[in-house]
């Protein structure tokens, strides 16, 4: 336990920030799961809407320093790669079937 008032206050602030950051990360993970669920169901429009909700949150967390910039870029890149592969397959499949 800290002995100085400033150290006690710093510990208190750290705990508040830790909880806030944890809730931000949970929100990001839930949004990413929604994107991945829509991609698994091959729902292009649902995935597009979920991506449009998830990407700004990922950017905001990176800007605040809650997650690393490279992690944010990697997460967005992987989601977009999966989305683009699905949307390309959706547009090609009617042509191939016809």
Word description of this protein:
By secondary structure, the chain is mainly alpha-helical. It has a single domain, classed as Ribosomal protein S20 (Methane Monooxygenase Hydroxylase, Chain G, domain 1). The protein is built from three helices and no strands. The protein has helices at 5-40, 44-64, 69-97. Helix 2 (44-64) runs antiparallel to helix 3 (69-97). The radius of gyration is 19 Å and the shape is elongated. 11% of the residues are buried. The model has no long low-confidence stretch (mean pLDDT 93).
Structural descriptors:
98 residues, 3 helices, mainly alpha, elongated, Methane Monooxygenase Hydroxylase, Chain G, domain 1
């Amino acid at each position: 336990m800290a002995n100085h008032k400033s150290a006690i206050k710093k510990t208190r602030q750290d705990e508040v920030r830790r909880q806030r950051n944890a809730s931000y990360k949970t929100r990001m993970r839930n949004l990413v799961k929604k994107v991945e669920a829509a991609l698994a169901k091959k729902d292009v429009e649902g995935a597009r809407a979920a991506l449009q909700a998830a990407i700004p949150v990922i950017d905001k967390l990176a800007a605040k320093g809650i997650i690393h910039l490279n992690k944010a870029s990697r997460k967005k890149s992987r989601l977009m790669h999966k989305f683009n592969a699905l949307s390309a397959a959706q547009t090609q499949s009617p042509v191939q079937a016809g």
